[in-house]
Each structure stands twice: as structure tokens, then as C-alpha cells.
Amino acid sequence: MSHIDYYFTVLSPWAFLAGARLEEMAAKHGATITYKPIDIGQLFARTGGTLPKDRHPSRMEYRMQELKRWSRVLGVEMNFNPAHWPTNGAPASYAIIAAQKEGGGDLGALVQGIMRAIWVEEKDIAQDQVVQDCLSAAGFSPSLAMSGLLVGAEVYPANLEDAVNAGVFGSPFYVCDDGEKFWGQDRLDLLDAHLATKG
């Protein structure tokens, strides 16, 4: 059985555009997923990346064109200038970590629900109530938003170390157990093809 470590920031529009395709591929190929939310600012600082606010205007103009293209191609509704972005992604990341440890709900739906809150619903995922609502909608106890703070605070920085050690430098980033790596939602078809060869 194949395994995928999925590294992402909950703030990533590209991870949002990935939707449920990773989960669908994993189900098709019998693969498992470990969700590893990370602090993208710290990852960029350690791997040579640049936060959007620090990028040249020409790069940001092209980024916006690409977001609009992919949103259209994928048929994904999206607000390209959300009211609450960027924001503090740690609380939502902690909740994902706690939910993964707790089990019992739909983790993929939780991750997608949190990102949808930013990119569609104009909500601030740094707010406890927003995170609690996302947990409930995905079948988890909303109390994980608070009870999961400790495990989240432990695992979140550990995920960053894992990411750096695995050669991760962006979001979304998919690392297979055989060492194959795929960066970006536009590489999911290649990941699908790779998983098919391992069946």
C-alpha cells in the first residue's frame, strides 16, 4: 500500500484548488495519507522561498492570472482577494493535527472546509468559532479546537522539520513513501499516474 505525506499551509490558494482530488486518488489506488500542515513562512525562510507580500509585482500579477485560469479550468468557485488573508493559520492547523490524531471524522473534508472558509466564505480561520464550525461539519468534535492545542503545538513545528528534511519547499507538496515528490495542485495527474504504477 502506498503512502503520501501531504504538506500544505491552510492559507494556500493552490492547496484549496486541489480540492478533494488527492483523497479521490488515494481511495482509487488504496493509498494512505498523512496530513502535515506547516508554517509556510518558516518553510520559505529555510528553503529560499518568498512570501507573496515580498514578491515582485510582475510575479504577483502572473500569480493572479494563474489563480483565475485554474479556478476556471477546475470549475472551483473562488474569491481571489479574500477579506481574511493572510491570517494566522496556526489555530486551524492545530485543529487538523488534533483531528487526525483523534479520528472519527472526514479529515479531507476538514482541510477543504477550512480553506473554503477563507477562499469562498470570507471567514477568518484564526477565529475559534470558524474552526469549530469546520470541525463539526467534517464530523469531528468542535472541542478539538481547544483540547487539541497541546498536540498541535508539538506537531506543527515537527511537521516543518519533516518538510525541510523531505525536500519540501512549497504548498501543496506531496511526498510518496518511495521518495517521489510532487509540487503543486497541477501535478496531481502525475501523482495519480505514479500511484497507478505501484499498484
Give a count of the beta strands, DSSP E runs of length 2 or more. Answer: 4
**Helix coverage percent of residues?**
40-55%
Major β-sheet annotation:
4 strands, mixed
- As for the number of domains, it is 1
Q: Given the C-alpha coordinates, what overall shape results?
A: globular
Structural class: alpha+beta
Order of helices and strands, N to C? EHHEHHHHHHHEEH
> Largest beta sheet: what is the strand line-up?
2-1-3-4
CATH class: Alpha Beta
* Count of DSSP-assigned helices: 10
Overall average residue pLDDT: 97
Uncertain residue segments = none
Cα-to-Cα separation, first versus last residue: 8 Å
Classified in CATH, the superfamily is Glutaredoxin
Instruction: Quote the beta fraction.
Output: 5-15%
> What is the second-level CATH architecture?
3-Layer(aba) Sandwich
- Which fold name is given in CATH as the topology? Glutaredoxin
Radius of gyration: 16 Å
Features:
199 residues, alpha+beta, Glutaredoxin, 4-stranded mixed β-sheet, 55% helix, 10% strand, globular
Could you give the topology of this structure?
Elements: E1 3-8, H1 13-18, H2 21-29, E2 32-37, H3 40-47, H4 57-74, H5 90-102, H6 107-119, H7 128-137, H8 144-147, H9 149-166, E3 173-176, E4 181-183, H10 188-197
Parallel strand pairs: 1-2
Antiparallel strand pairs: 1-3, 3-4
